[in-house]
Amino acid sequence: MAEEPVVRVALDVPLSRTFDYLPPATGRLQPGVRVRVPFGRRQQIGLILAVAESSALPRKRLKRVLEVIDDTPLLGEPELWLIRFTGDYYHHPIGEVVATALPALLRRGRSLHAAEHAADVKFAASEAAAGVDIETLARRAPRQAGLLAALRTAGDDGLDVDTLNAREPGWRRAVKALTDKGLAKRFETRADSFERADARPAETGPVLNPEQRAAVEAVHDRHGFGAFVLDGVTGSGKTEVYLQLIERAHADGRQVLVLVPEIGLTPQLVSRFSRRLGEEPALLHSALSDRERLHTWRLAREGAAKLILGTRSAVFVPLARPGLIIVDEEHDHSLKQHEGLRYSARDLAVARAARAEVPIVLGSATPSLELLSHCRDGRYTHLSLPRRAGAARPPRIELVDLSLHADREGLSDVLADAVERHVTAGGQALLYLNRRGFAPTLICTACGHVAVCTRCDARMTVHADDGRLRCHHCGSSRPLDPACGECGAKVRPLGAGTQRLEAALKARFPERRLRRIDSDSTQTKGAIHAALAEAVEGGADILVGTQMLSKGHHFPKLTLVGVVNADQGLFGTDFRADERLAQSIVQVAGRAGREDRRGEVLIQTAFPAHPFWKRLIDGGYPAVAECALEEREAAQWPPFSRLALIRSSAHRRGDAHAFLDYARETVSDTERSAIEVLGPVDAPLARRAGRYRAQLLLRSRDRGALHALLRRLRPILENSPTARRVRWSVDVDPVGLF
Ligand code: ADP
Ligand code: ZN
After folding, report:
1. Predicted confidence (pLDDT) at residue 191 exceeds the cutoff of 60
2. Residue 315 C-alpha to ligand 1 middle, in angstroms?
3. Is the pLDDT at 286 greater than 90, yes or no?
4. Are 121 and 98 in contact (CB under 8 A)?
């Protein structure tokens, strides 16, 4: 008699292995199906990754699957491949990769169809309802009147069951009465959007310029995989290229996945896509409810959603008929996850496109050096949109020498005069300062003592609105004491954050409408979108903000951009410092003069002679990138080498280091011939929230050797006695060494 098969199950535990089980009494076992299994003294939900003939463990030690949850696989082979690839490439526990890839409700064992009913069924007011007088109806049937009013406000989009449950108690009876009278109608959003009858007519876009057309043709002519870097200054019409490519993919009956950075997924972008394509894209982002997320995930999996627009984790969404993947603002670091499974959605998207044999377009005004270097190697195709589309011209960039022009609370007279000039002429000004709070430092006027965080190796930031000192690393805060804790003399804030700049602008321009946009001013849900919408409509003359303001937004009236403190990045220690500084300046500068009026950009710096500025002003981002690539090659930093960073943290500094010492000693001499082992050293922020942090850097030109080492190292570290006293992680292709 043939022996029963065993199943390899991925469980959400921090171990990089699968677990073998015997099949249950009933239920079909296939990869991609969820099962409930005994694990220790508990039960866990897991995903079958493989069905195998034998196990390394003796059969009598194997436990049996308790229940098979799905009758058909949730994930097909391409998605399972992506999960395995992610686990292998990032050397991360496979069960945690599965947990990242699946929506929360599925993780918890709910049915794939759990969200179906509520999210799909909607009610809307009928045309006849327009003539109903709500007040008259309210006298006889207040519930119906209330519901009808709500449905009328919702318009054609209607309200779904979840919303009705939350907002209109007793709605089911009321909606039945309204439907019977022909005042309300029920509909399902589930219909396949490829042939949906209610799709609105799409707006037609502009006629493409020759460069845009060439880009569209190059991608469309590629049958099969190809990676294309769409390198175009802001306003050069990258989004138009995306739109045309999406239309073509849809015409072929194919789905398109568009990934954007968290902050890039603005209502502006979504409405542009839906106006032009004639229907709503399916959205996947962090603000969705679990049900909404599952709903979108399922529509994508079934092929019913034609366009999926999402942030980082959407890279894992299953697609029935993929035709094209687009990554917008590919240089943005929010496409990389900075904790847990530290994956780059951009890089996984490329792997996914290759596996699915579809093209991928990676767009940016400031392409990362990794991608530029792939273009030089000929591995990726460089598509360039060198000029702004339509009438807009590139902004004029000038430096303001802070050693000549006194900088009062962050604002030099030159910059203040420019604000005056632009606002008087009917334009809008944006002052960019990537530092929130009132002042980054509180210093004693007598002894020079600086207020520091008790839990981190960091200074406290002064916050003026509530008179507190806050640590931007651990979030702790305490009241601001006007007397020095050391000597009792008076303290004063040093340097400027966005709040101080805002105060200075208020004093100087009392008549002007001012709006500060940073994470302090936009804490409530939706506040950021409201503030940006107001800014777009010209509801503020002067905008002050952090990098939140610098990305992707289109402010029609904006003509002046002031970079208030550019020097923060000028002497950065990280090997990416120049690339990042140039990216942030070029991105924020790209907000200026996007329509008919020419933009002006003023950059305040105390070091106007620094060679970085000449490169940036004369040659733009390409010149900075060129020079940075040379420096990286000379110093053997990526993209000319590969990095992996092992981090550890512990309550005692010695423990954090001991773990990494152990890792270091594990590397053999043979491995060292191909791989440099640097450290362990204290992390740049050596103590954070009471934990000591250390890191060990592995660097190699040989990707294969580096990965072979990590593969060998991971289980050794998992079982190391020193691991119990630390939190540790492996970061493959870290974006920063901090
Ligand atoms: P990007 O995505 O590169 O920032 P967009 O696609 O948003 O650029 O284009 C910037 C502006 O120029 C938009 O208002 C867009 O409608 C317009 N535009 C784009 N392509 C063309 C074109 N070929 N002709 C006229 N206007 C265009
Ligand atoms: Zn702190």
Report:
1. no
2. 26
3. no
4. no
Ligand 1, atom 26: closest residue by C-alpha: 390
Strand partners, 226: 359
Q: Is 238 in the pocket of ligand 1 (CB under 6 A)?
A: yes
CATH of the domain at 537: 3.40.50.300
Say how far apart CA 613 and CA 95 lie, in whole Å: 47
678 C-alpha vs ligand 1 centroid, how far in Å? 46
One domain for residues 380 and 402? no
Same domain, 126 and 96: no
Check residue 713 and give its pLDDT.
96
* pLDDT range class, residue 420, cuts 50, 70, 90: very high
Over range 419-442, report the average pLDDT. Answer: 95
Distance from the Cα of residue 475 to its chain's centroid: 21
Output the CA torsion sign for 316, 318, 324, 328: negative
The token pair at 574 is 């990280």
* Choice from 207, 212, 240 to test ligand 1 binding pocket (greatest atom count within 8 A of CB): 240
Residues 215, 257 within the same domain: yes
What pLDDT digit, counting tens, does each position of 710-723 carry?
999 999 999 998 89
**Could you tell me the distance, in angstroms and rounded to a whole number, from the CA of residue 243 to the centre of ligand 2?**
45
Please report which ligand is nearest the Cα atom of 453: 2
**How many domains does the structure of the chain reveal?**
5
| 417 and 367 together in one domain | no
pTM metric for this prediction = 0.87
Contact in structure between 110 and 297 (CB atoms under 8 Å): no
Tokens of 40: 């220790």
Same-domain status, 177 and 304: no
* CB of 232 sitting under 6 A from ligand 1: yes
Whether the pLDDT of residue 198 is over 60: the answer is no
Q: What is the DSSP string of 169-221?
A: TTHHHHHHHHHHTTSEEEEES-S-GGG-TTPPPPPP-PPPPHHHHHHHHHHHH
Q: What is the pLDDT of residue 197?
A: 46
Instruction: Verify that 221 and 364 share a domain, yes or no.
Output: yes
Could you tell me the distance, in angstroms and rounded to a whole number, from the CA of residue 390 to the centre of ligand 1?
7
Report how far ligand 2's centroid is from the alpha carbon of 692 (Å). Answer: 12
For ligand 1, say whether the CB of 206 is within 6 Å of any of its atoms. yes
Q: Is residue 298 part of a domain?
A: yes
pLDDT confidence of residue 593:
79
Assigned domain for 200 exists: no
Residue 366 DSSP label: S
Spatial separation of the C-alpha atoms in residues 52 and 589, rounded to whole Å: 57
pLDDT higher than 80, residue 552: no
* Same domain, residue pair 362 and 237: yes
Same domain, 340 and 421: no
In the reported structure, the alpha carbon of residue 477 is separated from the centroid of ligand 2 by a whole-number distance in angstroms of 8
Q: What is the CATH number of the domain that holds 40?
A: 3.40.1440.60
The bound ligand whose nearest atom lies closest to the alpha carbon of 236 is: 1
Does residue 390 line the site of ligand 1, with CB under 6 A? yes
Whether 587 is covered by a domain: the verdict is yes
Contact between 496 and 409 (Cβ < 8 Å): yes
Task: Pick the residue whose CA is nearest to atom 10 on ligand 1.
Answer: 235
Express as a percent the part of the chain with pLDDT over 70.
96
Residue 661: strand, helix, or coil: helix
- Closest by CA to 488, choosing from 452, 454, 444, is 444
pLDDT at 701 over 60: yes
Per the domain annotation, does 455 fall within a domain? Answer: no
- pLDDT of amino acid 324: 98
**Residue 95's domain spans which residues?**
6-107
Counting other chains too, the contacts that 617-622 makes at CB distance below 8 Å and 24 or more residues apart are 617/397, 617/398, 617/399, 620/586, 621/365, 621/366, 621/582, 621/583, 621/586
Higher pLDDT, 379 or 163: 379
